[in-house]
Design goal:
The complex is a heterodimer.
Chain A lengths: L6 H9 L6 H19 L3 H17 L10 H20 L10 H15 L7 H11 L2 H12 L4 H8 L3 H22 L1 H7 L1
Helix pairs in contact in A: 2-3, 2-4, 2-7, 3-4, 4-8, 6-9, 7-9, 8-9, 9-10
Chain B lengths: L3 H13 L4 H13 L1 H19 L9 H9 L8 H4 L2 H24 L26 H33 L1
Helix pairs in contact in B: 1-3, 2-3
The chains are: A mainly alpha, B mainly alpha.
């Protein structure tokens, strides 16, 4: 196994014919990629299939990775395009920022969540559920910034945005997340303060 | 009076470490003396901590194995820059630049620079006569050039394929 090696070292090994070394990269990034895919695709099965597809695409295009950016940034660009393509193909609801329906959908989902509120949710569950209530654009940017630890410049590259626009989008996403938490998880939020 | 939105934006920048040194010291002071700022800061900081503490979703345990089984069927594709022929791109660019330059030169050649007019520079489009360039002869020359260029590119392509086949053999 190639654990302990940097991403670029592992990529070097893979490009030199050591296909098995790629497993370390998959293990290193599978949770990030899967979480990001889940932000777009609500079904676990579909998200897993798409995540698998993303790693295959990344493997096939590995020779195109020139190391100008972090491997993770390059990989998340593939996540972004693959998920959008998947949603277009499946014609699923892409909860865009511009869609008024976002809130209607969120509210209808909330009824399901409320039924489960009998049991006290852990902080993690609450945050993940609140993120799931957001539109895909908001959920993605929050995940990239907080979980995938990408800078605003890197997020800009992934989403094809100017860093300043990425910053504004992140800010809007956080405001919406806070609103969601206050609306749907008022009790938990109160306990936190 | 600072709006709530502006306050939040400044505080988020402060929390994310994106504030300038000057801005940071201003906010430090505000947090010490202004209760409203302090309250909002604590609120946002709590959200920030929550977001950092949230866990990632995990795929099934067989995920890596599935990916590795799939990629065993594939080869890494050659880097894009190795199969995109820059000469073709340059050739196409040159063709378009030459056409644009030709039109410009011809257009400017039609202007009567000695003509005096009170309105300064005037460009009379009606004077530009392109019809003589789009007569049969010129179109035939243009088509011939394209055919020659096409044959040249096809020859290039076939030559490369032959070389690649030789190398493999």
């Amino acid at each position: 196994m190639s654990t302990g090696l940097s991403d670029n070292e592992i990529i070097g090994k893979v490009l030199n014919g050591d296909q098995q070394a790629y497993a370390s990269l998959v293990e290193r990034y599978q949770n990030y990629v899967f979480t990001l895919a889940m932000r777009f695709i609500k079904s676990r099965e579909d998200a897993e299939e798409v995540a698998q597809d993303i790693f295959i695409k990344a493997y096939r295009s590995l020779a195109d990775f020139r190391g100008a950016s972090k491997f993770s940034t390059w990989l998340y660009t593939i996540v972004n395009t693959t998920c959008i393509t998947f949603l277009r193909k499946k014609k699923l609801d892409t909860y865009s920022l511009d869609q008024e329906k976002v809130f209607e959908v969120a509210d209808s989902q909330d009824s399901g969540f409320r039924a489960n509120l009998v049991e006290q949710k852990s902080r993690n569950t609450m945050v993940n559920e609140a993120i799931a209530l957001l539109g895909a654009d908001d959920a993605e940017i929050i995940t990239l910034f907080y979980k995938a630890e990408q800078t605003l410049e890197e997020i800009g590259k992934i989403l094809g945005l100017d860093p300043k626009t990425a910053k504004v989008r992140l800010h809007r996403a956080r405001v919406r997340l806070k609103e969601k938490m206050e609306t749907h998880f008022a009790e938990e939020v109160k306990d936190l303060n | 009076m600072e709006t709530q939105k502006q306050m939040e934006e400044r505080l988020w920048d402060y929390i994310d470490g994106l504030s300038s040194t000057e801005e940071k010291s201003v906010i430090d002071k505000l947090l010490q003396h202004d209760m409203e700022w302090k309250k909002k800061y604590n609120e946002l900081l709590e959200t920030h901590k929550l977001l950092h503490s949230s866990e990632l979703e995990a795929p099934s345990l067989r995920f890596t194995k599935n990916v590795m089984e799939e990629i065993a069927k594939y080869h890494i594709a050659p880097a894009t820059k190795t199969y995109i022929n820059k000469k073709i791109i340059w050739g196409i660019s040159f063709f378009f630049i030459a056409v644009i330059a030709g039109f410009l030169i011809y257009g400017f050649g039609q202007i009567d620079w000695s003509a005096k007019s009170g309105n300064g520079f005037q460009f009379d489009l009606s004077k530009v006569d392109v019809s003589k360039f789009f007569n049969n002869t010129y179109i035939n020359i243009f088509m011939m050039l394209n055919v020659v260029l096409g044959l040249f590119l096809l020859d290039n392509y076939l030559g490369k394929r032959r070389k690649a086949a030789h190398k493999k053999a």
